[in-house]
Amino acid sequence: MDYNKLTPIVNKPNGWALMPLVVFLCMYLVTSIIVNDFYKVPITIAFLTASVYAVATTKGLSLNDRILQYSSGAANTNIMLMIWIFILAGAFAQSAKAMGAIDATVNLTLWLLPENLLLAGIFLASCFISLSIGTSVGTIVALAPVAAGIAAKTDTNMAFMTALVVGGAFFGDNLSFISDTTIAATRTQGCVMRDKFRVNFLIALPAALLVLVYYIIYGMQTEARPETGPIEWMKIVPYLIVLGTSIAGINVTLVLLLGLLSTGIIGLAYGTFDLFGWFGSMGEGVLGMGELIIITLMAGGMLELIRFNGGIDYILHRLTEHIRSKRGAEFSIAALVSLANFCTANNTIAIITVGPLASKIAEEYRVDKRKSASILDTFSCVVQGIIPYGAQILIAARLTGLSPLSIIPYLYYPIALGAVAALSIIFRFPRRYS
Fold first, then answer.
1. How do residues 184-207 score in pLDDT, each as one tens digit?
2. Eight-state DSSP code of residue 29
3. CA atoms within a 13 Å half-sphere pointing along the CA-CB vector of 121
4. Cα–Cα distance between 396 and 302 in angstroms, integer?
5. How confident is the model at residue 249 (pLDDT cuts 50, 70, 90)?
């Protein structure tokens, strides 16, 4: 192997270098549309096929050197750091679930709901739970059956009630420190989670307040007290530790380790699991991140070969030739991640795929990396929140017996979030980060 060839130098801008992305889209998106099932083709196989094509068509290197070049992209320091965080996040999330933290959080939030503000309360409960546990899917699984039961008791439109939960779930997915999207956005842009949270919060909060006011007015006449189980206050502590230490600016790996340790101590003290049960739940959580880790590695390797062959420079040239301002650069980043999310139906994968390119655009046009991370996370969540073939809406539909398309018209929060995010680019707010 000639290690001297493995340098940051790239070939001249070349549109054909983007063909691995075309192969990926054809393999995953087009095939899924043809068979009318977006989960028929595993996304790992689509990335594997595109990666093999990228290696096979790279010129100027021997086969061994092409594979090494691909591997150097997969072993990029940002990608490796992201993977370690994914591992810890998976272990923490599953350990907290096994310990009973999710059930405790759901019971607490439902207990706190004001009786005459039911719709607003369900939305707030979904926001709080998703912010705490860092997953929109987990929030929907926990709350969608509750929302369906309340809808049946109060004669409320079930699709409307389900959309309340889905919208709130994306609030936390967009902001949580332990969300996959937050981890991916901050790592690809090279910024601190706390700073990205500050930017993101100033964009997400107005959207959430607008929707909340509507729910308060609309739901003022709806009353029903949801049934709750016993509230076990100590089981909520791990989420509070993670939120508090994250906001304090402590390194995310230490944050997750503290959260993981607290789940073990509390779980053992309550007898929820024994030591080996705790180890088993951590192992299950790590394995649950396996597909995401494999996709992250393959996406990093494939994008490195695209970069090496001149594809990244070609996109930068074509995408930025008409950009004249930071607004144009930020809208380009938003368009990139939105398109990627429409194609992959996975907001984390969309961010991982276009994150390095977004970082280059941000550097060239001096866009604050905290703002670019926020744009990546926000617009990916907006798109994920309105596509009927996304995992979140499919799960919500399955749990409530609805058609995914029946939920879409009531997804007010993702639409409001997209509108506020676009306005934040046009009117340059938050000012400090624009």
1. 999 899 998 888 999 999 999 999
2. I
3. 23
4. 33
5. low
Per-position DSSP letters for 6-24, written without gaps between them: -SS--PSP-GGGGHHHHHH
The phi-psi region of residue 92 (left if phi > 0; otherwise alpha if psi is between -120 and 50; otherwise beta) is alpha
- Tell me if 185 sits within 8 A of 373, measured CB to CB: yes
Residues in the chain: 434
* More confident position, 98 or 33: 98
CA 250 – CA 307 distance, rounded (Å):
34
* 3-state SS, residue 190: coil
- Give the 3-state secondary structure of residue 400: helix
DSSP assignment letter at 38: T
- Helices 290-308 and 311-320: crossing angle in degrees, nearest 10, is 80
Percent of all residues in the chain with a pLDDT value above 70, rounded to a whole number:
93
8 Å CB contact between 373 and 333: no
The answer to whether 200 and 174 are in contact (CB under 8 A) is: yes
- Rounding to the nearest 10 degrees, give the CA dihedral for residues 233, 235, 239, 245: 80
| AA identity, residue 333 | I
Residue for token digits 């099932």?
A: 37
For residues 396-408, average pLDDT: 83
Q: Give the residue carrying structure tokens 């530790």.
A: 241
Two tokens, residue 349: 């994968």
Q: How far apart are CA 43 and CA 70, in angstroms?
A: 19
* Summary count for the chain: helices (H), strands (E): 22, 0
Q: Which amino acid is present at 239? A: Y
Tens digit of pLDDT for each residue in 257-287? Answer: 998 999 999 999 999 999 999 999 999 989 9
Measure CA of the first residue to CA of the last residue in the chain; give whole Å.
Answer: 45
pLDDT (tens digit per residue) in 317-367:
777 777 788 899 999 999 989 988 887 778 888 898 889 889 989 998 999
